[in-house]
Write a structure and sequence with these properties.
By secondary structure, the chain is α+β, with helices and mostly antiparallel strands. It has one domain. It has 4 helices and 7 strands. It has helices spanning 3-6, 27-32, 114-124, 138-144; strands at residues 8-9, 17-26, 38-51, 55-69, 76-91, 102-105, 111-112. A 5-stranded mixed β-sheet has the order 2-3-4-5-6. The longest helix is centred in the last third of the chain and has 11 residues, at 114-124. The radius of gyration is 19 Å and the shape is elongated. The termini are far apart. 19% of the residues are buried. The protein binds zinc ion (ZN). Residues 70, 72-73, 75, 77, 130-131, 136 line the site of zinc ion (ZN).
């Protein structure tokens, strides 16, 4: 199963009203998207769906962790992820560009949240990505710090 399918919303079968679904994110999403920042991930995505005639309103909560390279010691570093977002999906024959908050798809077209979830985790990453103080690999730090500096 490709990532587009794994994160697709099977809205065709949904009745109007509320639905909720959960999907797990792992490192595959970031490998498939060829991310240079995120090496691995383990997140739960909870999606509340409001199915309407004209489209869908989605509330997306992503919690878990992403593994990135520590800015200080370059070893793997877990970054907690806690994202909440809303996405409006509208059915339209004239499909406009996805702008991060509203997505237009043709009625019947597959709706995949792979791109949305990927971007949401990327924007959740802090600017500075380091281990907590004292948790960097001391051997790695020593290699980057001149010996006479401390
Ligand atoms: Zn570190």
């Amino acid at each position: 199963m490709g990532i587009a399918q794994k994160y697709s919303i099977a809205y065709h079968a949904m009745t109007k009203g509320h639905h909720s679904l959960d999907v797990a994110v792992d490192g595959e999403l970031f490998r498939e998207m060829e991310s240079t920042e995120v090496k691995d991930a383990a997140c739960d995505v909870h999606i509340e769906v409001e199915r309407m005639e004209s489209g869908l309103n989605l509330q997306v909560a992503i919690t878990g962790k992403a593994v990135v390279e520590c800015d200080r010691c370059l070893e793997d570093c877990d970054i907690p992820i806690d994202f909440n977002g809303e996405l409006a999906v509208r059915f339209s024959d004239t499909v406009s560009d996805y702008d991060g908050e509203q997505m237009w798809i043709a009625q019947g077209e597959e709706l995949s949240l792979a791109q949305y979830i990927y971007e949401s985790i990327i924007i959740s990453l802090p600017y500075r990505r380091v281990h907590a103080d004292g948790e960097c690999n001391p051997d790695m730090l020593a290699r980057f710090t001149p010996a006479n500096n401390e």
